[in-house]
Amino acid sequence: MSTVELERPRASNYKLRVIDCDIHPAMTSWTEVHPYLERQWIEHLTVYGSHLRHAFSEALSHPRMSPDAARIDAYPEEGGPPGSSLELMKKQHLDPNGIEVGMLIPLRWNPGSQRNLDLGVALTRAMNTWQVERWVKQEPRLRASVLIAQEDTVASVAEIDARGGDPNFTQILILPKTDEPLGRRRYWPIYEAAVRNNLPITIHVGGTNGHPSTGGGWTSYYMEEHHSVAQTMQAVVASLVFEGVLERFPELRVVIMEGGLGWVPSLNARMDKHWARLRSEVPHVKKPPSEYVREQVWFSTQPMEEPATSAELIDLFDRIGWDRLLFSTDYPHWDFDDPRYAFRANLTKAQREQLLYENARKFYRLD
């Protein structure tokens, strides 16, 4: 069996074929969504602005080590934030890195976490249309995500049903810092709508719910906050399992995006052990938790914990399941993963193609 080592001397000899599951588009100006936003809400934003559950609501929830959490070279020459220039995105990322399909994950303005629910609903509708008009119609390699104001379940279901038949959309985006754990029944109509419309749920790190970033309270440093995303995602997975979401909706597909993956085997083992002893508390969970995770949950590769040796990384992938891994770059953010060098392991050509392309093709049902 042949192997491909992702070292720089060999990278240029291999033609990449990539589905990037995490690209962050940005607006050059907030006025870009005005054509898709009712006059009432344009005036509201002008007078009152956005209202999230932290101070300085139009700022990031924690000071970043890099402005806009972005690569320095991702600022367009013509101005605007990183991710706002389609031409630079094509030149810097889509073309040289062999991106055949790129999934858009808009994060700015965080419409799902707006305290004013009606504003959040209006923003999600506007930003969904903005993705299609500003990006997908201009670049056929890109796909949009259905943004929802998840605290308004009725409106979220309506938006999912409205976008569900549109091939420009490939997934439903939820940020995990919701008002309550995502397994709670108030969110179940969203999962039902996802299954009905044959769309997966992507849970991407982020959101603001007013709660501290960690179970131990607020962090002092960006590095602490950055590590807390793994804790958040573990809580999300446990909630989906033990609240019964994955049992109730066996056709639901969930991807954990940008939350790391080194913790997956230990979480599975811990959940299985406790389920074996305490399952009488959760009779609706009918099989070991790891089986639900193995069948219905996928994980993106960025940011990826990198063990000291190639063998350890291979072992980690073996334990999670090679077919459960979706490649992502996080373009244009500072911890971007270049697909040529993202895996510090001796992968076979088949393994590499599976991680970079085939898994996502099957997961998003792109055929």
DSSP helical segment count: 12
The description of the largest β-sheet is: 8 strands, parallel
Low-confidence stretches: 1-12
SSE sequence, one letter per element: EHEHHEHEHEHEHHEHHEHEEH
Shape: globular
Mean pLDDT: 91
Report how far the terminal alpha carbons are from each other: 28 Å
In which order are the strands of the major sheet placed?
Answer: 2-3-4-5-6-7-8-9
User: Rg from C-alpha positions?
Assistant: 20 Å
Give the amount of beta strand, in percent.
Answer: 5-15%
Q: What portion of residues is helical?
A: 25-40%
The overall strand count is 10
Task: Summarize the entry for a quick read.
The chain is an alpha/beta fold. It is 37% helix and 12% strand.
List the helices and strands and how they pair.
Elements: E1 3-5, H1 8-11, E2 18-23, H2 39-47, H3 86-94, E3 99-104, H4 117-136, E4 142-147, H5 153-163, E5 169-174, H6 188-196, E6 201-204, H7 222-242, H8 245-248, E7 254-257, H9 264-278, H10 289-296, E8 297-300, H11 310-320, E9 325-326, E10 346-348, H12 349-363
Structure description:
The structure is a single chain. With 367 residues, the chain is an alpha/beta fold. The protein is built from twelve helices and ten strands. The protein has helices at residues 8-11, 39-47, 86-94, 117-136, 153-163, 188-196, 222-242, 245-248, 264-278, 289-296, 310-320, 349-363; strands spanning 3-5, 18-23, 99-104, 142-147, 169-174, 201-204, 254-257, 297-300, 325-326, 346-348. An eight-stranded parallel sheet has the order 2-3-4-5-6-7-8-9. Helix 5 (153-163) packs parallel to helix 6. The longest helix is centred in the middle third of the chain and has 21 residues, at 222-242. The chain starts with a strand and ends with a helix. Residues 1-12 have low confidence and may be disordered.
